[in-house]
Structure formats: C-alpha cells, structure tokens
Specification:
Distance between the termini: 11 Å
CATH class of one domain: Mainly Beta
Protein name: Photosystem II stability/assembly factor-like uncharacterized protein
Strand content: over 45%
Pfam families: PSII_BNR
Shape: elongated
CATH architecture of one domain: 7 Propeller
Number of strands: 66
CATH topology of one domain: Methylamine Dehydrogenase, Chain H
Keywords: Photosynthesis, Photosystem II
GO biological process, one term: photosynthesis
Largest sheet: 8 strands, mixed
InterPro entries: PSII_CF48-like_dom, WD40/YVTN_repeat-like_dom_sf
Helix content: under 10%
C-alpha cells in the first residue's frame, strides 16, 4: 500500500489550519431526564417524599414524590458513589474510589468537591455534622479510619485497636459503633478514639457481626449473622440481651442478610438477599414477612426519619426499586418510573416550549425548558408506533412521522389534539416508511400555508403544499434507496441525505433532485445549511462533511481522535458555530465547533444521543437512549467566531521521501483503551477478533504535503455480491506514536477491491494535508460476513520504499 504524495507549497493560512488546537469554550450540558443505572449501589430515604438512589456507572437519581418520578442529579465526572452517606435531608458526602470526597447540600441534586482526599480504597463514609465525618479505607492490606473536624480540609487517622476490620459502622452524634468478626467497638468522641466492648460470646467461639443499627447513642441492635441472632442494648453496649431469630426465618437454607435497620425502639427491618424483607414491631422479638420477591437479590434498604417511607432495591437484573409509603406494610415496584423509551426526535419552539418523540408511542412535551415533561396519550395502534421525528412550523402547527405502523400525525392547536393525515401512495405502489420530517418556520400571525417535506424508504420524498401531501420518488438509481434526513433553506432549495452516502439537492421545492458527490458510501443521517453555500452532513462511521459551495464539493471534517460509531444529527446557528450528536459505544457524544468545523470539542454524555434542537447559540436540547434529555446553556455572543479559509494546494511531484514504518511494529497491540471496564478496546491497527480489521503503516515525508490517493496491491478472493465497505484512511500521529485524528478517508465497495495482484488506485475526494509523518490505513469492515475468502489479513512490508506493499 503506497500513498500518492505530492510536495506542497502551502500559504501561511494553511499553517494555522494544521496547528490550531482543539477549542474549548464556556458551555454546559445538563442531564434533565432518563437513564437507569446499570446496577444500583445504594438507596436513601431522606424524607417521606425525598428519595435518592446511586448506581453504576456514576449515576444518581432523586425523587421528590416518593418515587413516582425520578430526576438525574448533577454529578461531576469524577464522582462514582463508591460509598455515600447523608446526615439529614440536605447534607450528604460521597467518596470515589480514589478517595476524593464530594458534598451535597440540597439532598443530592448537585455535588461539589471537598478539599482533601483520603488515602486508600473507601469502605465507609459517615457524616457526623456539617463539619465532621469519618471515612474508613483499605490501604495496602491495612484498614484505616480517618476523621475530619473541618469539612474535609484535613484528616487525621483515628486511634483504633490493632487489627481493625469492620463490616458496618453507625454514628449517632459523637457516639458510634463498629462491628466485624468477633468485634464490637465504640467511640464517644466522634471517631477519634475507639474501645472494644464486651459482648456475649457464642458457644461456637465465633460471632459474625455484620450489621449494626442504633436509633440513638445508647439503644441499638447488632446482627450476629453467623449464629442467626440479634444482640440488643439499651445502655450503650454495657450489657446485651440475645434474641434468636424465629424458626420460619431460619428454615431458609440460603439465608443471607444484607441489611438491618431500626427506625424506632420497636420498628425495624431485615433484608434477606434471596427474596424477603422482614419487619418487626416489637423491637426484634418477632418478625413478619412484608415483601416476597422470588429470584431477586435484595441488597439495600432505608427508612425515612418519620418511618412512613421505606425504600429497598434489588441488584439482580433487571434492577428493581421497591417503595413503601405505609411504613413497610405494602410495597410498589417503582422500576418503571426509571424506564423511558428511546427518544429519536426533538424540536423546541422557544426556550420553554418543546416536543420530543420516540419508540413505543412516546410523544411528550415540556413548557418549562425541559424541567418536566408531559406524556401525550394516543389511541391504538399509535400508542405502540415508533415515532422518528417531530417538526413545528409555528406554535400551533406540528407534524410527527412514525413507523410500525407507518403514519404521519398533525396538530393545528399547539398539540392539544393530534390527527393522522392520509399518506399518498408510492408512485410505484411500493410500501414505504417515513424517517424524517422538516417544515419551514412561519412568522407569528403568518397567513401563508406551511411548507414541509418528509422522506423515508423506497426513495420516498413527500411534499406538503399547505393542504395535501404529494408523493415523489427519487432513487438516484440505488435499489432500496433510503432517505434519513431532509432540510430546506427556503421554499425552493433543499437537500436530502441517506443510504450509500447519498446527498441530493433540489432547487424546485423537491420536485426534482440531483445527486452531489459526497465521497462516502456510508449512510448519511442528517443535513443542515445556514445559507445557500455553507452546509454540513453527518452519518455513520465518523462522517462529518462540509460544503462551502452549496454542495458542489464536500470535504471530510477532522474530528477528535478515536472512533465514534455514528453521528445522527447536525445543527449550525451560523456558518461558524454548530453541534453534532451521536454515539460512542454505549455512551453519547456531542461535538461543538465555533470555527465552522475546523476544530471540534467533544462532550461525552451517559446515553447515546439521536437528535437535538437549538433555539439560538445559547440554548439547545439533545435527546437519546432511555428517554434521555440534555439541556445546553451558554452565554456566548458569537462575535469572535470565525472560520479559516479553505487551504489551496500547489502540487509538485516529490520522489524518494517516503519510507515505511519499522516492520517490527506490533500492529495487533496498537489499541485505544476503552474508558470503562465493560467496553472493548478499539483495534486501530492489526488483527482483532471482531471481524473488523484495520491495518496501518507509518510514512514520513519532508515538510508539508498532500495525500491525494493510494496505490495498493491485493491478492485473494472476494464475493462480488458483498454489500460491505473497505476504508482507506489517513491519520495524523498522536503523542503515543499511534494513529490519532482521521484526516482523510475514502470508501470502496468490497466488490471493487482488486485482488489479482495488480495495482489499484484510490483517490480521495479532496487532497489530504499532512506534515512530516502520517499513518495510512486500510480498514476491512466485517470481512468475515462480507465475502473475503479466509479470515486472516496481514501487511507485508518491502525493504525498498518505492516497491508496492501487498496485502492478503
């Protein structure tokens, strides 16, 4: 594989084009709705109405109505809720796995860092007062207990007996109790010093004290898990009485208590991991089964200070939250309150009024900027339809497109009522489904009819003339043509994008269409223009394209390093400032730019994002998986936004300046590490195990140059019917010496890859600027199912740089 490289004389402007860093500017994305934790980690009943739940990965939710609805907390990226504790309904502390503490003063809705971390992996945190608290850690095989008296500014190690080990810790003011295997300890000075307490030793000689609960400084209970008994004290541990657990509880051969909590001298709860919650109303003398959930792994429980609300959770998939509002006598499964269907489309009319649509008949609206959302109930079968997009021409007239069943809904009264509109038949009689709808905005009080377009499968393009939808088909010669997005600048000029990298333009209101060269074979999902010249299109496999000449030419935009699976939406408020939404594995990604896409800043969010809407450069919303809604705010003016002029090239042939990277490079080890433990490392180069192989060679060139294409040689067999795509990519080189930003790209159908050992020339859509060194790669996507014979590929380096590089 050998690049076609020309020595280039660049004007000064190109130097800036190559060397500007990625920009950052003051902006925030706030998580407003959606996102269930993959696994719950803790629950808190801060009051009868105020509940708080933490989960993995790095998620916290709170409810202000006893679990009827839940909102996401504003959680800094470094907060992971390894251990957490609340002093009261407002003040709480949490510690991440690195020992960094954060505090909330509004019941978990927002969190701020405390100044000084503790050393070691946290086991417990207990808040004693606004200023004081305890953190137990495990550090290099030793358990340590730290206390602070100044809100985490400084920490001191507590004076504890040798061999400290604790299963549970409870504080009641300055008095506290630690329990563990054969150990009950007590403090009366806020955790600075601890003494062992005497307790009744079981006949076996061993006591497994796993859980402790005190309602004040002197009255409490300790659960001897190993011997299935309760120890009870009313004098601060000076003396203890033993109560054996009832026989009906002990008959469970898999008994495993995960939580004990007493709310008063008489009322308490025991949680059995298998499936039960038990309640006592006589201080532990007898117990009644109040919750029975077979197959659930019940883990945590908390009781509100007034005893009215009890919250418990299961960590068995699917995770479940149970809430009782009558003191634990009856329970409701509140998991559904966490679950939302995917949102696929969104539009905001102004900074307060917006609409979003999604799977399973989801049609919701907000009148307060997304703080709360109202469900719109629809009749069958629309209540099961998968809504794709929503568009409003003004505050009264809106449309929604759906599939399964295929439908187009309209409202003429601001969404109070929705009716299905009759869809025209496909000109060839083919069944089709709609994927996108777009309407031009109308000024308030306008009497002109609304103008809109909808696109979908089978080459379908619908035009709305104010009263009727009219059908048009434009397949552009592509079998099964699917349009994913449409945008019109005015009543005559618009663009549609879709399968096979199609970009089509109309200058007569959508009656006729002409294809424009995109340089990609990948599906494109959305398109947006700010004026007749400046436009952007985005799609699968990292594609962000830009035009400055109305679409006559499209240039690949350079995005931040690493793969993003797909981009789904794009919007610009000016030729310089814009946003792109998409996904990166299970996460979402939002890219922003203030220089026309020359450089981008990435914001990662918890959920994949499928669509967004902006009312101006300071207010926007993005929606996505699990019903997620994110709100964007900024205080920008845009006065300093500008885009660099496109570079020009003066090409002069340059010989003998290229050389291959050392043949000893372990291409199979060149990976980008995943951010989370459950994700897979990205295989940038070398052989992997996902049937997606990308091979790269490093080349060096003196000074600045432009890669205009690739000459490659291949041998093997390929199925001429394969629908898959191979990619030739040009990367710059990161600090680690591996491929970093993708500078250029060209797609080739598998069936067009020559495998007869003769040269194959592939030309990029536009010359790719490089400087000093770059990587050239060939990416075979899903070759195992794509028709290549065999399942092994390798790069064969030649000793002479001018000789061809072969691949098989």
């Amino acid at each position: 594989m050998r690049p076609i490289v020309y020595k280039t004389i660049f004007p000064l402007l190109l130097f800036h084009f190559l060397t500007l860093p990625f920009l950052t500017f003051a902006q925030t994305w706030q998580h407003q709705r959606g996102r269930e934790p993959d696994q719950y980690s803790k629950v808190f009943a801060l009051s009868a109405q105020h509940l708080f739940v933490t989960g993995y990965p790095k998620i916290a939710l709170y409810s202000l109505n006893s679990g009827q609805t839940w909102l996401p907390a504003n959680v800094p990226a470094e907060v992971d809720f390894t251990v957490s504790h609340f002093l009261n309904a407002t003040t709480g502390w949490t510690v991440n796995e690195a020992g960094q503490l954060h505090q909330t003063q509004n019941g978990g809705q927002t969190w701020a860092p405390l100044p000084t971390p503790v050393k070691g992996y946290p086991q417990f945190v207990r808040v004693i007062s606004e200023q004081s608290g305890l953190v137990m850690t495990y550090d290099e095989g030793v358990v340590k207990l730290y206390h602070t008296q100044n809100q985490g500014q400084t920490w001191a190690e507590a004076d504890t007996p040798e061999g400290l080990w604790a299963s549970d810790l409870v504080m009641a003011g300055q008095t506290g109790y630690l329990v563990g295997l054969n150990s009950i300890m007590k403090t009366v000075d806020g955790g600075r010093t601890w003494q062992n307490l005497t307790y009744p030793v079981h006949a076996s000689g061993s006591n497994g004290f796993y859980h402790v609960s005190f309602i004040d400084a002197v009255t409490g209970w300790v659960l001897d898990h190993d011997n299935k008994a309760l120890l009870h004290t009313t004098n601060g541990g000076q003396t203890w009485t033993i109560t054996a657990l009832p026989e009906d509880i002990l008959q469970n051969p898999n008994l495993n208590f995960t939580q004990m909590q007493f709310q008063s001298a008489t009322v308490g709860f025991l949680v059995d991991a298998q499936q039960y919650i038990y309640k006592t109303t006589n201080g532990g003398q007898t117990w009644a089964k109040v919750l029975d959930q077979p197959g659930q792994h019940l883990q945590y429980l908390d009781v509100s200070p007034d005893g009215r609300t009890v919250i418990a959770l299961s960590i068995m998939t699917p995770n479940t939250v149970y809430v009782s509002t009558d003191g634990g006598d009856t329970w409701q499964n509140k998991r559904q309150a966490f679950l939302y269907h995917n949102l696929m489309g969104v539009t905001f009319l102004n900074q307060t009024h917006g609409w979003a649509v999604g799977d399973a008949g989801t049609l919701i609206r907000t009148q307060n900027g997304g703080e709360t959302w109202e469900n719109i109930n629809l009749p069958a079968p629309l209540d099961k339809a998968n809504f794709k997009k929503v568009a409003f021409a003004d505050d009264q007239h809106g449309w929604v497109v759906a599939s399964n069943p295929n439908a187009l809904l309209a409202t003429a009264d601001g969404g109070q009522n929705w009716q299905t509109q009759t869809l025209p038949a496909h000109p060839q009689g083919t069944e089709y489904s709609l994927h996108h709808v777009f309407f031009l905005k109308r000024a308030a009080g306008s009497t002109s009819p609304p103008k809109g377009w909808a696109v979908g499968s089978a080459g379908t393009i619908l035009r709305y003339d104010g009263t009727t939808w009219r059908a048009h088909t434009e397949t552009l010669g592509i079998a099964g043509m699917l349009y994913n997005g449409v945008f019109f600048l005015n009543e005559t000029t618009g663009w549609a994008v879709g399968r096979n990298g199609v970009i089509a333009k109309s200058i007569d209101g959508g009656q006729t269409w002409t294809r424009q060269p995109s340089g990609t074979l990948r599906p494109l999902n959305a398109v947006h223009f700010t004026d007749a010249q400046h436009g952007w299109a985005v799609g699968d496999h990292d594609y962000v394209l830009k035009t400055i000449d109305g679409g006559q030419t499209w240039r690949l935009q350079i995005i931040p390093p690493a793969f993003v699976s797909h981009f789904f939406d794009v919007h610009f408020t000016s030729p310089h400032r814009g946003w792109v939404t998409g996904r990166r594995d299970s996460h979402g990604t939002i890219l922003s730019t203030t220089d026309g896409g020359h450089t981008w800043t990435e914001t990662e969010v918890d959920n994949r994002t499928y669509a967004h809407s902006f009312t101006d450069l300071n207010h926007g919303w993005a929606v996505g998986r699990n019903g997620a809604v994110y709100r964007f705010t900024d205080n920008a003016t845009g006065a300093n936004d500008q885009s660099p002029a496109p570079f020009t090239l003066t090409l002069q042939p340059e010989q003998h300046t290229l050389r291959n990277f050392a043949s000893t490079i372990a291409l199979q080890d060149s990976v980008v590490k995943a951010k989370e433990w459950w994700e897979t490392d990205y295989q940038f180069t070398g052989m992997g195990n996902s049937y997606i192989e990308e091979f790269a060679e490093r080349f060096e060139v003196s000074g600045k140059a432009a890669v205009v294409g690739v000459v490659s040689y291949h041998t093997g067999e390929v199925n001429s019917q394969s629908p898959n795509v191979a990619e030739f990519n040009v990367f710059d080189i990161g600090a680690d010496g591996l491929p970093s930003r993708k500078l250029g790209r060209k797609d080739v159908w598998y069936k067009e890859v020559k495998v007869d050992k003769t040269s194959m020339s592939t030309t990029f859509n536009a010359p790719v600027p490089v400087e000093n060194a770059f990587y050239l790669s060939l990416n075979f996507t899903d070759y195992a199912h794509g028709g290549f014979e065999g399942d092994n590929f390798a790069l064969l380096h030649t000793s002479t740089p001018d000789l061809p590089v072969t691949m098989r």
